[in-house]
Amino acid sequence: MGIRPLHQCSQQTIDSLLGSVALYKQVYQLDPIQFDVLMRNSQLVEAKLGEVVIEAGQIDSWLYFLLRGQLVVYAGEPAIRRVNVITPGEIFGDMAILLDLPRSATVIADVRTRVSAVVRTDFSIFGEPLDQAGIKLPVKLLFYRTMVHNLRWKLEVYRAQFPSRSFAADHRKIRLYAGVRDTMDELLSLDSQARQLAELLNSWNLALTQAGDP
User: Fold this and answer.
1) What 3-state DSSP class applies to 66?
2) Rounded to an integer, what distance in angstroms lies between the CA atom of residue 75 and that of residue 210?
3) Within its chain, how far is the Cα of 20 from the centroid?
């Protein structure tokens, strides 16, 4: 598996990789200096077919974005059941970061794809929500909105697949933010939403590792 620091890549390579990723594009348009901070704390991962991108049980602070290819998710430690497929444009790895847990799933490059390209960013530079020393409020808001949207989408997929599960619709009970946008209050709400949604996603993944359907 090839791993390169993004800040060591040419600007042309960075543009070609991230030009179609809405989140990074928004960050660059909003604050090029903050974009540079992210690049200095990000890596390009190129995984060949069958290579492990994330291994269950490992502890790290990487947040992942799939650029091209396809990845397969196996829940449990060791990986015991295929539970999901990751396609280009998806964020993954956010659950363990939000809950401060070891990785609960193994993510492998699909054997049907020659090379899968992933960008991973060290989320530790974000610090706590109130911490503005590294990543500033506007960029934090972009990331947290994306994570909340991504987690809700994953939970909706599970609900559609297994509607009879007792907690299938619990994510819909988590309140959306209704206050003034672009404020610290919004960020704190998004942080709370993200952690609650991550807890539910963790419950789903645990259920999917059990014998039979959840």
Assistant:
1) strand
2) 10
3) 17
Domain CATH code at residue 178 = 2.60.120.10
Residue 214 counted as domain residue = no
Number of domains in the chain: 1
In a domain, 213, yes or no: no
Residue type, 3: I
* Cα of 16 vs its chain's centroid, Å: 21
Domain range for 37: 2-208
Q: Each residue's pLDDT tens digit in the chain (214 positions)?
A: 899 999 898 888 888 888 878 899 999 999 999 999 999 999 999 999 999 999 988 999 999 999 999 999 987 665 567 878 999 989 999 999 999 999 988 999 998 888 999 999 999 999 999 998 889 999 999 999 999 999 999 999 999 989 998 899 999 999 999 999 999 999 999 999 999 999 999 888 888 777 454 4
